[in-house]
Amino acid sequence: IFKKSDEKKVPLDVNALIREVLRLMHGEIEIGRVSVQNELNSELPKVLGHRIQLQLVFRNLIMNAVEAMSSVTDRGRVLNIRSETKPSGVRISVADSGTGIDPESMDRIFHAFFTTKSQGTGMGLSICQSIVEAHGGQLSASRSHPHGSIFVIVLPALKFGD
Beta 78-86 vs 35-40: how paired, if at all? Predict the structure, then answer.
């Protein structure tokens, strides 16, 4: 990820990337007893990007969501992935019904080496943010109500003629 690559950015279908990652992660999702709800806009414009890098971002966010729901026993474990077109570009949200991000940790979750996991390195979200920003986008997080967290990626949409 960190080395310079000759790989060029190409037009990508974000929904197809999300579906590919969900297929690859089917086992982890099933083991975690997580129900996936997709709300993918079929009219989504393409984005210009590196396929593997963006797949890594989606994989990390989905894995974090599955892990965040592992201790939930009093409600359904629901992962909601939504894509939509906004004036600012393509918006992708990954929401879970887990325990949520501790408010005291919220301003540090994208910092390198910050982790709340006993086995975590603290690099996942930092790398995700770097990848999204390298694609001209933004990655943010917030608590979801009544439970869980929501991570939002906004990427510039490929305009006709680009």
Answer: parallel
Q: Does the predicted model carry a pTM greater than 0.70?
A: yes
What 3-state class would DSSP assign to 147? coil
**What is the model's pLDDT at position 146?**
82
CA 80, CA 92: separation in Å to the nearest integer?
10
Rounded CA separation 44/153 (Å) = 14
- How many CB atoms within 10 Å of residue 93? 18
Give the span between the Cα atoms of 55 and 124, in whole angstroms.
Answer: 13
Residue 84 belongs to what H/E stretch? Answer: strand 78-86
Degrees to nearest 5, angle at CA 123 with 44 and 4:
70
Q: What is the maximal distance between C-alpha atoms in the chain?
A: 50
- 102's tokens: 């501790």
**What's the Cα-to-Cα distance from 48 to each of 12, 140, 159, rounded to whole Å?**
6, 20, 10
Reported as a single tens digit per residue, the pLDDT across 123-141 is 578 889 999 999 999 999 9
